[in-house]
């Protein structure tokens, strides 16, 4: 045998790390944190082992735990004390995310990103204002344009509380433009927007809906989140957000959508974020529990794949565990 090309030569210890093409580091990661106004104590999230909902009084402590692992950024999700038709607690000055943001930004150096959506705050669990007959007519869900103002108010209230970046996740057409306008008008032109630009209607959000108590009370999100069948449409969605002023472009979920991560990376120059969602976390944990997978290795390999596909940053429930092992 006389093979001239032997890639295995570069897999030897000593050289393999020199030629490695992709790196995963703690500074790539954002850790989601759930703050719950309905509890005085930490409540474990059953579907997401190792994660908890924490009361506002423990938000700082929780974020400090994240920082200790080397992860420098968190994404705050809120569970409000009460819900109503329009989700008014989403933009309340004394709302759960606003309160937690104030405390965390005052007490820590964490980079604080806030999720901007209404589904945790509305009694019906949808991501916006409902059409009149949405409950009985399956062809109806949220009113797009009437939701924009509420999202903008929510984002501004987060910025007022000190949020470093806002991340709208409701898949409302025009949400980035409306939020940009709101932020600029209120003097927050320095607060960037990380848009959930290509967010699919995915079965992989199941565990999160438990965690954040944001499952729709009826129907589903297929009229506003993207059809998993579509890739070209994702480019339209992302282009629209870029035009409206998005600073970071997110693809969600990550693992089943790495083709979309790659396509966004190739088509746009903005930083690309991948959201390694709750179901992706839960399935590795479930398999590891049974002894079928090594949790640490399969988690690290998943995140590396997202970076290899083109993600600059990753939102992941594995952030702390992976960072601690790097
Ligand atoms: C809110 C929101 C959701 C997630 C992030 N922001 C739920 C949804 O769209 O149903 C899902 C995150 C995850 O599954 O980890 N709209």
Automatic annotation (TrEMBL):
One of its GO terms (molecular function) is porphobilinogen synthase activity. It holds the Pfam family ALAD. Keywords: Heme biosynthesis, Lyase, Porphyrin biosynthesis. Coiled coil: none annotated. Gene3D superfamilies: Aldolase class I (3.20.20.70). Its EC number is 4.2.1.24. Pathway: Porphyrin-containing compound metabolism; protoporphyrin-IX biosynthesis; coproporphyrinogen-III from 5-aminolevulinate: step 1/4. InterPro entries: ALAD (IPR001731), ALAD_AS (IPR030656), Aldolase_TIM (IPR013785). It catalyses: 2 5-aminolevulinate = porphobilinogen + 2 H2O + H(+). SMART domains: ALAD. It comes from the Archaea. Homooctamer. Belongs to the ALAD family. This is Delta-aminolevulinic acid dehydratase. It comes from Halogeometricum luteum.
């Amino acid at each position: 045998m006389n093979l001239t090309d032997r890639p295995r030569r570069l897999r030897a210890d000593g050289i393999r790390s020199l030629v490695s093409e992709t790196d995963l580091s703690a500074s790539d990661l954002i850790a989601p944190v759930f703050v719950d106004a309905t509890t005085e104590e930490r409540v474990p999230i059953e579907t997401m082992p190792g994660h908890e909902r924490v009361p506002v009084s423990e938000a700082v402590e929780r974020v400090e735990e994240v920082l200790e692992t080397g992860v420098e950024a968190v994404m705050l999700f809120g569970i409000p004390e009460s819900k109503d038709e329009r989700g008014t607690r989403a933009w309340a000055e004394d709302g759960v995310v606003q309160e937690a943001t104030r405390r965390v930004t005052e007490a820590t150096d964490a980079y604080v990103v806030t999720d901007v959506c209404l589904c945790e705050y509305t009694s019906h669990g949808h991501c916006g204002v409902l059409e009149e007959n949405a409950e009985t007519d399956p062809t109806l869900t949220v009113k797009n344009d009437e939701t924009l103002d509420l999202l903008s108010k929510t984002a501004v209230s987060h910025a007022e509380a000190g949020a470093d970046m806002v991340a709208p996740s409701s898949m409302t057409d025009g949400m980035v433009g409306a939020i940009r306008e709101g932020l600029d008008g209120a003097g927050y032109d320095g607060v960037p927007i990380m848009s959930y630009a290509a967010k699919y209607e995915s079965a992989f959000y199941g565990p999160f809906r438990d965690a954040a108590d944001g499952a729709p009370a009826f129907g589903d999100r297929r009229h506003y989140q993207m059809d998993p069948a579509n890739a070209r449409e994702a480019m339209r969605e992302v282009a629209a957000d870029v035009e409206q002023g998005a600073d970071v472009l997110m693809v969600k979920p990550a693992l089943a959508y790495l083709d979309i991560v790659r396509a966004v990376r190739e088509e746009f120059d903005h930083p690309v974020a991948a959201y390694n969602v709750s179901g992706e976390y839960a399935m590795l944990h479930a398999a590891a529990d049974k002894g079928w997978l090594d949790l640490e290795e399969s988690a690290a390999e998943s995140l590396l794949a997202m970076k290899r596909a083109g993600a600059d940053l990753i939102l992941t429930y594995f952030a702390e565990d992976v960072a601690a092992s790097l």
